[in-house]
Amino acid sequence: MAPEAKRGEERNPFLYSKVVDGLKKLYKKNLQPLEEQYLFHGFHSPLLSEADFESKPTVLLIGQYSTGKTSFIRYILGRDYPGIHVGPEPTTDRFLAVMHGSEDRVVPGSAATIQPDKPFRGLARYGASFLSRFQVSEANCPVLEDFTFIDTPGILSGEKQRIGRNYDFTGVIKWFAERSDLILLLFDAYKLDISDEFQRCIQQLRGHDDKVKVILNKADLVSSQQLMRVYGALMWSLGKVMPVPEVVRVYIGSFWENEYVNQDNAALFDQEREDLFTHLYGLPRDAAVRKINEFVKRARLAKVHACIIGHLKQQMPAMFGKEKAQAKLIEDLRTEFLKIQRQFHIPAGSMPDVEKYQEMLRDYDFRKFQKVNERMIANVDKMLSKNVAALMEELPSSSSLPSSVAQ
Amino acid sequence: MAPEAKRGEERNPFLYSKVVDGLKKLYKKNLQPLEEQYLFHGFHSPLLSEADFESKPTVLLIGQYSTGKTSFIRYILGRDYPGIHVGPEPTTDRFLAVMHGSEDRVVPGSAATIQPDKPFRGLARYGASFLSRFQVSEANCPVLEDFTFIDTPGILSGEKQRIGRNYDFTGVIKWFAERSDLILLLFDAYKLDISDEFQRCIQQLRGHDDKVKVILNKADLVSSQQLMRVYGALMWSLGKVMPVPEVVRVYIGSFWENEYVNQDNAALFDQEREDLFTHLYGLPRDAAVRKINEFVKRARLAKVHACIIGHLKQQMPAMFGKEKAQAKLIEDLRTEFLKIQRQFHIPAGSMPDVEKYQEMLRDYDFRKFQKVNERMIANVDKMLSKNVAALMEELPSSSSLPSSVAQ
Ligand SMILES: Nc1ncnc2c1ncn2[C@@H]1O[C@H](COP(=O)(O)OP(=O)(O)OP(=O)(O)O)[C@@H](O)[C@H]1O
Ligand SMILES: Nc1ncnc2c1ncn2[C@@H]1O[C@H](COP(=O)(O)OP(=O)(O)OP(=O)(O)O)[C@@H](O)[C@H]1O
Ligand SMILES: [Mg+2]
Ligand SMILES: [Mg+2]
Question: Is the CB of B253 under 6 A from ligand 2?
C-alpha cells in the first residue's frame, strides 16, 4: 500500500497550516493590538513572531547509519528532497531540516539560523562546525505543509564517529528532540546494536518518552523466526537502555516504496504501517489542537490583563498625588482585583497572581497606562467565540479536544 | 506435530539411563575397590552413592499460575502423572518431582528426603511445612527414563501468595535450580507481568543463565499483531529484570496437545517447538557426556592417587625408624612425585598438588597403606580404554565431546 493511498483517505491535508494561518491572522488583527496597548509583553511573554506560528509538527529521525532514515522520509514525501543521499554506506553526513518551500532549494545552516520565519535561531549556540553540518532542504511538497522532518547523520559505533565530528552531537539531538512532536528511533534487522553514542542520545530523550517510537525496518528481509529473534533482541536491549517502565511502541515493517521481499508477514507489516501512519497523520491535528489551546489561553490572559491595566489607569487621580495613589493601588491590589472581577465578569480562577502583579507593577508609571477599550475587548471575545470556534470545527473529532478548548 | 513423533525420530531413548547404568556397574566393579583400598575419600571425595548416579537430567518449570507448566509436563510425557492437577485457577499447590518408577505412585515429601536412591536429602533443611508441600510423583513412563521434571506452584502476585506459604519459596527454587539442567520460565500471552516474588526467583537463577530458557505459551490465542506486542513487552521486561547482556532464548508457541486456535503463525510455532525439543532431547546426551567426563577424570585421579599411596608404602623401611622415614618422605614429596611420574608414565599435568598432599599425608600412618596393586590399576586402565570408550560410542555425535573425554 502506497502512503499516497493512505494520505488520500484519512489525511485532512493542510489542516495544520489552515489552523495556524487562521490563528496568525486573528492574532495580528485582534490580539496583537490589545497586547501592545496594555504592555502584555512586559508582564507575560513577548509578542508572537512569525517563527512561533511557522514551526510545524516535527518528526525527528535517529538511528544507526543505513537503517533507512532518509529512505523513510522520501517514502512519506513520495519524492526526493533537495540534497538527498541514500546508500548502504554511511551517507547522510549532516542534520537536514526538510521543510516546505515554494520552490526546491537548499539553505545552508548559518543562513538558516538568521531567517526570521524559521525556528532555528537557537542552533547558533552549537557553533560554526555544527552549522556547516546543518542545512534546510526546502521542497514544494504537499506533505510538508503539515510536517517538518529532521534527517540526521547515522550513528556509527566505537571510535569511528568521534573522528569526523567536532560538534556536540548529543546536544544537538537534545535540542531537536525538545522541539519535535515525534521522535523515531530506527533499527533494522541487521543493525540492532545500541552503541555508546546511541545510548547517550537515547538518554537525552528522557522526559520526551511519550514522543519516542521505534521502527524496526527492513523486517521483510529475514524469515519469521529470525524476525522474532531480532525483534526480541531489540526489545531486550531497549528495555535495558530506556529508563521507563512502559514498553515503547515498535513498528515492525519495511518503510519504503518497494515490495516486501519475504511476504510471510505482509499482513502484520501492513497493519503496523497503518498504525504508524494513523499516529503520524494524527500529529497535525494534535498540534493544531495544542496551538488553539495555547492561543485561547493567551487571548483570555491578554484580555484579563487589559482589564487590570485599564482599571488601574482609571483609578488614578486626574491631577495631584499620583505617586501616592499608585502606591496605594499596588498595596490594595487584592481589593482592586475583586472589583475588576465583578465589573468584567471574570471567573476567579482566571485572575492572575496578585503578588506577582504587585511586584511587576512597581516598575511602571500608571499615568502612561491606557484606559479600558471596550471595543478591543469585545473584539477578542468575538474572535474567541466566533473565529476560533470556526477553526476548531475544521478539526476532525472535537470530542477529544482538551476541555479548555472545547468549552 | 505430537511430541511422540519427534521423540520417535530423533530421540535416542534411554540413552542417559544406559550410560549411567553402565558407569555405575563399572564403578562398582573396577573403581570403587581401588578407591577403598587407597583411601581415596580421605584425600578427594566420598565414594559415589546410588543417588549420585540416579539423578537424571532435570527440567525445572517456573512461572505464574495457569501459564501451563503442568500441561507442558503432561504434553512431554504424553500422559498424566500421579497427583496431576490442571485448571485455569491456581491449581498446583506444591513442588512435584515427576520421576521414573516401576509403577505409578506418590511419595510424600518427608519420605522422599530419606530415600537413598533419590537426590532430595538436601531438601530437609527447608523444614516440615515445606516438605508437606513437596512430593515425588513416580510414573512408569519412558520419557522419565531420561528426565526428571520439577513442577512448581504458580507464582501469584502481590500479597496473595505470602498468605499461603510458610516456607522459603525462593530458597527452594534456588536449591532446585542448582540441580537442574534446564530451567524453563513460563509466560503466556495473558500473563506477562513479573511480580516481586517472580523477580526474586529470577534473581536466584543468577549464575545459571545458560540453563534458563523462556516459554511464551498460548501464543496461538492472540492475533499476529497482538503477539508482537505481547512478545515485545515480555522481552522488554525480561531485559530489565535479567542481569545478563545476552538475550535469553524465548520459545514462542503453544505447548500442549491441542490444535492451534489461530493458525497464522503455525509455521513459526512448529519451528519453535522443534528447536525447544531439539534442545530438550539433547540434554540427556549432554548430561551423559558430562557424567562420562567426570567419571574419566575421577578414574584417572583415583589411579594416580593409588600409585602415590602404593609408592609411599613401598618406600617405608621394613622394621625400624618408620616415623622418621614417613616424615622424610613427606618432606621430599616433590622428588617422590617425580619418581612416581616416571615409574607409572603419568603426564606431569595429571599429578596432584604436592603441598596439598604433604598437608593431608600428615594425618595418616603410612604403615597402614597398601602396596601398589598392578592388577587393580590395569583394570582401571582397561575399563577406561575399553568399557568407557564403548559407552561413549553410544552417544550420537562424538565430534562434539569435550577433549578430556574424546582423547
Ligand atoms: N525498507 C527498506 N528495506 C530494505 N532496504 C532499505 C529500506 N530502506 C532503505 N533501504 C536501503 O538501505 C540503505 C540505507 O538507506 P538510507 O540511506 O535511507 O539509510 P540512512 O539511515 O539514511 O543512512 P545514513 O545514516 O547513512 O544516512 C540504502 O541502500 C537503501 O536503499
Ligand atoms: N498451550 C496452551 N494453550 C491454551 N491453554 C492452555 C495451554 N496449556 C494449558 N492451558 C490451559 O491453561 C490452564 C492452566 O494450565 P496448567 O494448570 O497446566 O497451568 P499451571 O502453570 O500448571 O498452573 P498452576 O501454576 O496453577 O499449577 C488450564 O485451563 C489449561 O487447560
Ligand atoms: Mg540518511
Ligand atoms: Mg500446575
Answer: no
